[in-house]
From TrEMBL:
PROSITE patterns: NUDIX. It comes from Sulfurisoma sediminicola. Monomer. Belongs to the Nudix hydrolase family. NudJ subfamily. Its cofactor is Mg(2+). It comes from the Bacteria. It holds the Pfam family NUDIX. InterPro entries: NUDIX_hydrolase-like_dom_sf, NUDIX_hydrolase_dom, NudJ. It is an enzyme of class 3 (hydrolase). The lineage of its organism: Bacteria, Pseudomonadati, Pseudomonadota, Betaproteobacteria, Nitrosomonadales. Keywords: Hydrolase, Magnesium. Its EC number is 3.6.1.-. This is Phosphatase NudJ. Residues 5-134 form the Nudix hydrolase domain.
Amino acid sequence: MSPAIWKPNVTVAALIERDGRFLLVEEETDEGLRFNQPAGHLDEGESLVAACMREALEETSWHVRPTALVGVYQWPRPQRDITYLRFAFACEPVAEQDGLALDAGIVRAVWLAPEEIKAGRDRHRSPLVWQCVQDYLSGRRFPLDLIRHHD
């Protein structure tokens, strides 16, 4: 029997800011209700940018336009044999799609000020939630063409 091959779980996250507030989701997890950026796993054959747009729509009912890469984050999750590799994107909100059902497990999408996000860190899905907001607020932006997708 060959040994298992380790690989990280690739995820994307959308940092959607409007009028000084960020669009987060409150979601059901094994640890109870937690806040997160609209985020999820990269699907096979999908570009990172397309995944970001899809996840934002599925989890918030907002169409977004990614404008920059904020950062790439590696998080080996404690108490689990899993490592996440997160690509976080700065996104502009384009339009909300009325009547769209949110993904299973998403309780609501909510606009929060940075102070509210920071104050609720004990209810974040991961430490990456606040780290991504901090990096966004500090002006970290990398051009999208940093990421090359080849079909």
